[in-house]
Amino acid sequence: MIDGTIENALNDQIEMEARSSHFYLAMASWAENQGLNGTAEFLYRHSDEERMHMLKLVRFVNERGGKAVIPALASPQNEFSGLQSIFSSLLEHETKVTASINEVVDLCLSRKDYTTHNFMQWYVAEQIEEEALARNILDKLSLIGQDKGGLYLFDRDLEQLNPEA
Ligand code: OFO
């Protein structure tokens, strides 16, 4: 049976992953409306990945005898000033997600819940990838600057980029 404090922390994490999915969906939709189809594809996939992260937690909490709580979600930011703003917000959001995952890991150690600790290691590794990917994209964007040809190629390349890679 899962410890109540850990169960609450995992439910908070479920909400965070759901918010990530929602946020990236809003970004994807914005990009699609701007004709940035490659970026939109990448962000739609990213949103799906976040839903999968949420689902993995839901099932784990239930399997361990806890009760997963499906959260209500507020409408996320829907307007963006450009790609730089999208990916800076994404990186900022992922940094918060990493901090929250680290807190869950910390709690698992203090409550001696090694099963959940082990489960959370997948998220720890995933956050390293996600932050690195967002930084990489931002580096590319600052190299491109206002160059239209560069932005065209950036958008095209993003269509092939896997957020899970
Ligand atoms: Fe779930 O990794 Fe991003 O938030």
Q: Note the gap between the termini.
A: 34 Å
Shape designation: elongated
- Poorly predicted regions are none
Q: Report the biggest beta sheet as strand number plus sense, adding barrel if it closes.
A: none
- The assigned CATH architecture is Up-down Bundle
What is the CATH topology assignment? Answer: Ferritin
Structural class category: mainly alpha
Mind telling me the C-alpha Rg? 17 Å
Bound molecules: hydroxy diiron-OXO moiety
Describe the model.
- With about 160 residues, this protein is mainly alpha-helical.
- The protein has a single domain, classed as Up-down Bundle (Ferritin), CATH 1.20.1260.10.
- The protein contains five helices and no strands.
- Helix 1 packs antiparallel against helix 3, helix 2 (about 35-65) packs parallel to helix 5 and helix 3 runs antiparallel to helix 4 (about 115-145).
- The longest helix is centred in the last third of the chain and has 31 residues, at about 115-145.
- The two termini are about 35 Å apart.
- The relative contact order is 0.16.
- Hydroxy diiron-OXO moiety binds next to helix 1, helix 2, helix 3 and helix 4.
- Hydroxy diiron-OXO moiety binds near residues 94, 126 and 130.
